[in-house]
């Protein structure tokens, strides 16, 4: 009888930021978490921004994260189904992780149904009202022309520029996000819009960098997975309910 009956969700590891030592400490913590879940995990959903920067050249990938990638491979070989979402920091994942580890890559949203509960899952970038500048930028970055051009830039320069740019992002400063009024929480607004058309029990997002568990209606909740610089948060579905949990939370 299989003990693999849990579904795990986490996002926004931002591996690589802000410095090597900080990223390695976080990577070790993530590996401990993967060890903690590996016996009872049926499926693992990594909901975007797992890498602070990622690109796959024809014959090369960025250095680093070998313990994390090795541990993912171990889980995959144990029979855990792993699903990774493209985030705004790591939208350039193509076929490498599928080939090496067996990870399924999701570009945008994913709808799943488990034990009669319906989940809507998305990294969370470019949804809801506003942020028009980013939505245009996302279309450009995701175009095959842009990716083809970037692949032509020498990695020493290309990855260097990408890391410098990423160094100015919200997460690099390790500053904690604060909750806005619900009207200004754009993923709350987006979820409520979707609910008008279709029922979901759970909306699961990353991107906000703030762990949230918000009741949208009698039968729907919005869970934000937070991030792993300040919170170490993940969600687990046990076949009955979805819970937001903290890993190795300091008192
Ligand atoms: Mn992020």
UniProtKB/TrEMBL annotation:
Record's keyword annotation contains Cell inner membrane: yes
Cell inner membrane found in the keyword field: yes
InterPro entries (alphabetical): Calcineurin-like_PHP, LpxH-like, Metallo-depent_PP-like
Pfam family, one: Metallophos
BP terms from Gene Ontology: lipid A biosynthetic process
An annotated Gene Ontology molecular function: UDP-2,3-diacylglucosamine hydrolase activity
Keywords: Cell inner membrane, Cell membrane, Hydrolase, Manganese, Membrane, Metal-binding
Annotated Calcineurin-like phosphoesterase domain residues: 6-210
Listed transmembrane segments: none
Recorded GO CC terms: membrane
This protein's name: UDP-2,3-diacylglucosamine hydrolase
């Amino acid at each position: 009888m299989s003990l693999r009956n849990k579904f795990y969700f986490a996002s926004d590891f931002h591996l690589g930021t802000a410095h090597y030592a900080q990223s390695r400490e976080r990577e070790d913590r993530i590996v401990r978490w993967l060890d903690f879940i590996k016996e009872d995990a049926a499926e693992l959903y990594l909901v975007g921004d797992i890498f602070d920067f990622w690109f796959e050249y024809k014959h090369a990938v960025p250095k680093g994260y070998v313990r994390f990638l090795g541990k993912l491979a171990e889980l995959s070989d144990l029979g855990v189904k792993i699903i990774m979402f493209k985030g705004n920091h790591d939208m350039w994942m193509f076929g490498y992780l599928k080939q090496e580890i067996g990870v399924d890559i999701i570009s945008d949203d994913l709808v799943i149904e488990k034990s009669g509960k319906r989940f809507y899952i998305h990294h969370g970038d470019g949804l809801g009202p506003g942020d028009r500048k980013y939505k245009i930028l996302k279309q450009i970055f995701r175009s095959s022309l842009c990716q083809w051009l970037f692949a032509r830039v020498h990695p020493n320069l290309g990855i260097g520029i990408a890391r410098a740019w990423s160094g100015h992002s919200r997460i690099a400063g390790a500053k904690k996000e604060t909750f806005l009024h619900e009207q200004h929480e754009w993923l709350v607004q987006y979820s409520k819009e979707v609910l008008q058309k279709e029922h979901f029990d759970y909306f699961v997002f990353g991107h906000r960098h703030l762990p949230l568990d918000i009741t949208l209606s009698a039968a729907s909740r919005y869970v934000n997975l937070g991030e792993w610089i300040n919170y170490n948060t993940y969600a687990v579905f046990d076949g009955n309910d979805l819970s937001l949990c903290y890993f190795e939370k300091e008192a």
